[in-house]
Fold this sequence. Notes:
The structure holds two protein chains of two kinds. Chain A is mainly alpha-helical.
Amino acid sequence: MTVREKGYIHWDGVLLERRFSWWPITWLGIRLSFKKKYFKFIYFGSFIPALVFLVGIYISERIQDFKYIVRGTPKLLEVNPAYFKAYFAGDFLIFMMVMILVVSGAGLISDDLKGNSLQLYFSRPLEKRHYLFGKGAIVLFFLLLLTLVPGLLFILFKLLFSGSFKFIASYPWLLISVIAYSLIVSLFFSFYALMLSASSKNRRYVSILIFAVYLFSDILSGFFYEYFKKPGFILISLKANLQQVGAFIFKTQPAYAVPWYWSLFIVLAVCFLANFVLLRKVKGVDVIK
Amino acid sequence: MIVELNNIHFSYGRVKALDGVTLGLSKGAVGLLGPNGAGKSTLLRLLLGFLPPQKGTGRVLGYDIRLEQPQIRRHVGYMPEDECLIPGMDAVTFTAYFGELSGMPHQEAIKRAHDVLFYVGLGESRYRQLETYSAGMKQRLKLAQAIVHDPKLLFLDEPTSNLDPSGRKEILELITDISSKKDIQVLISSHILTDIESVCSDVVILNKGRLAAQGRISELKRLRFRLYEVRIKGNGQGFIERLRRIGYTVEETEDNLLKVYIPEDQEILQFFQAAEEEKVQVRLFVRSQTSLEDLFAKAVGVD
């Protein structure tokens, strides 16, 4: 006898009052991301710099053995806060983060808007903030895995390869810098992706928008910077702002003569703008027409 | 009582959406009827806990609609009117996902998703991508996600829209099975009155934010008025106006037939007196069986 023939059957379990009601959203989002075309390729490709920097840490501790490779550029392999900053605020890593957003972040809200599924979410014991946090946590998960985890591994392997705690004694604040910058950059990109994802029902359009806003902010900033020779124009660039903040957090020389707090202000302003847009776009009450 | 509302008021700015609605729903299937703008959607929003009433009190499944909204939504299933899906998912993932969001453990939700998908007739296509589903399949999927967590109360918004006759019949059979043989209260909002009549034992009719009628369909049809089909020759408009002044409700059909609703406390004699005074010949005067459509028309006003 099939289930259909048997008629409706009651479920004999108990519905849980979850402490983290957003978790199913995050968990499913992570699983679905890996099913997306090119995602695995892009995501695992993003770990190449981490691998290179990890090898660099190893070589820096065995510099005598690798002298024939290094050939007079041992300064590059000097593991210090600048080394960490070079990883975290490197062009390639930031570019790959944007590519991750393009592939896995674009559809987070736009797919729900397109499929009219917000009303299904909010007819559950789920509040708007839980929904948004669950969606944002998907991006956060991928980006923290790409920033925080390698950062912590760099420190750990540096200690292991050197066999002493001298490194951590020289830079006791580095661990906090790694955590702080990882959180800032991941949160920024989470807000950025969610804001643009909520702006349209078309996932492809959002993908293009995520990439275009990042790229054009950089091109525009470069153009004005070159034309007017005023460093203030770098504030237009999302990438440059993140790099300026990174330079401050890792206590290195910033690339541009612009106070770091202006860049931090821009980064926070984008986050607040995103929050404002999300609260307006994602409405629980309007789900029943 | 599964749902108890007492003197509920709700306005959108100056527009009154609900104006002193008091109702109580007991077990079984209940139809929610009303013309556009009657307040049905606002009532559903209130019952799902999206809106707190501006005045009045209410309880759904024993939970306060002002204070215990998450608990209400945990135990309520909702099938929206619009097409709802998440692109890139199969039906099992989709259904289990909403089960989990309602509070089911992950493994249980997956197991239950298979069961309900078989139940609604999507067993064979449960691993297909949702974008490839037909309109009828999407409708069944919406029902599956609404019942996956075994709700005690089910809100169905136009459950048979976009369905062909056989699909419609099957969905109605499922709703009948859920509401009559199991311990689940169903509230159906629909414009298809025959669907309501075939599935529901009770009906709630809203009009202009007020409760126009409520109760068992059979009793409402029998008690409130008598319906007559009338064909006349002579000054039709004058006669109709006269009948309306007496207190009858008159509806003109396309084939020149008049449907006259005579309130139960009024005499039929007045009808014939009016015909004589207006010099109208009554060619046909037949007592008609009242349908839900008639009841609806009478409740919301046919003019």
